[in-house]
Amino acid sequence: MPTPRPDWAPEPTGLDAKLGIVITDFDPDRMVATMPVAGNEQPHGLLHGGATCALVESIGSWAAALHAGPGRQVVGIELNASYLRAATEGDVTAVCTPVRRGRTLATFLVEVSDDQGRPTATARLTCLVKQG
To answer: 50 CB contacts (<8 Å, ≥6 apart)?
Structure first.
């Protein structure tokens, strides 16, 4: 059973909404999000790498925000992505797991796969947890 969005966390808006990113599980140890390929392709019909990076940044930042808790902010400070296979249709699914959740830095591994479960990208995101 998926973990629901915390009451204090705002609904996703902005770029997440434009790209069609939907977080389906807010489990801080294994967050899951989906994004459609349609509307997010580059000129050759493949999922745009920038859209994949936005998906990774979004789910990783949400994971860092859950770690930080209400009233604190997080910002991405490093993103590293490797593209493994092109996605051309359907949805991609991102699964985000923590590598390290510290007091000021939080690092996450995000694995992206297509509808057939084949890996399309893997990435690492590090976020700064702003005290305050």
So the answer is: none
Overall number of domains in the chain: 1
For the record, the structure tokens of 35 come out as 């994004």
58 domain-assigned: yes
Q: What is the CATH number of the domain that holds 25?
A: 3.10.129.10
Tell whether 96 is covered by a domain: yes
Which position among 57, 78, 89, 111 bears the catalytic label?
57
For residue 105, being part of any structural domain is answered with yes
CA-nearest of 89, 91, 100 to 60 is: 100
User: Does the active-site annotation cover 57?
Assistant: yes
Q: pLDDT per residue over 37-92, tens digit each?
A: 999 999 999 999 999 999 999 999 999 999 999 989 999 999 999 999 999 999 99
